[in-house]
Amino acid sequence: MAQRFVRVQSQSGQLHYGLLQPDYSVQVLDAPPWLQGQVTDVELVADAYQLMAPCAPSKVIAVGKNYAAHAAEMGGELPEEPLLFMKPSTAVTSHLAPVFYPPQSQQVDYEGELALVIGDRCVDCSEAEASEKIWGYTIANDITARDLQRRDSQWVRAKGFDSFCPLGPWIVRELSPEAQIQTVLNDREAPVQMGSIADMIFKPAVLVAYISQIMTLLPGDVILTGTPEGVGPLQIGDRVRVKIEGIGALENTIKPRI
Q: Which residues contact 199 (CB under 8 A, 6 or more apart)?
């Protein structure tokens, strides 16, 4: 099994990065792993911590219409360059945490995605350099208030509500370039989204290089790489699970925002 890097909160409230063990205990690191964090003598047993989002990015950069079939279902032509938008760091939430349905919206959609975690400062990188800046991979759900996205001339409101960027449950260092991605709702047998990350229009290194020509990427920053076709609405009470082969599954429940 690949090493799984986590970020957890202990019962005392301290935040730690660590290595998840097969018995779900955590070997604590003395720093984030992309900053050369080393294993310490501290171990947290399985019931002594809460799993958090696996990193705390300064920013989340997302890519729209990066799968041809999804671009078609959303209308319009394929983008000639990566179509970028941002989600605030306050949108980030964790595996099993609630996603809150905002009262401003009548249609909130799921969008299962592969997320890249940046491991080193990245400015004006070539594609070859960009490949070395990708420290690892995790799962994301780019929750979107679709009606607000259609209404507004930009996407900040539709994409930026608190809890609209679940990440996790952990980070892995290696991933097959043909890994399968699926999104499943509730107890349905058939996934609502299914595709391969090989079908991306702009591959991960291309995205990192392109973004680095615009803004500095910092260690721990996250890039959402786009969603396959099959996006659709969520209802309060739904459980949505995004699965990526070689990583695991990210699950969240939709709750009303009070």
A: 67, 68, 69, 228
Instruction: Evaluate whether the domain defined by 60-256 bears CATH number 3.90.850.10.
Output: yes
Q: Is the peptide bond before 169 cis (omega within 30 degrees of 0)?
A: yes
Inter-residue contact 18 to 52 (CB < 8 Å) = no
pLDDT at 75 > cutoff 80: no
* Fold of domain 4-51: SH3 type barrels. (2.30.30)
Instruction: Specify the DSSP element, H or E, that contains 86.
Output: strand 83-87
- Kindly list the domain boundaries of the chain, sorted by start residue: 4-51, 60-256
Chain-centroid distance of CA 171 in Å reads 10
**Residue of 158, 57, 160, 72 lying closest to 115 (CA atoms):** 57
pLDDT at 183 over 80: yes
User: Are 4-51 and 60-256 in the same CATH fold?
Assistant: no
Question: Pick from 136, 113, 117: which is nearest to 244 by CA?
Answer: 113
Whole-number average pLDDT of the chain: 96
Q: Which residues contact 62 (CB under 8 A, 6 or more apart)?
A: 84, 85, 86, 87, 113, 142, 159, 223, 224, 226
- Asked if pLDDT for residue 70 goes beyond 90, the answer is no
- Report strand pairing: 165-172 vs 92-93: parallel
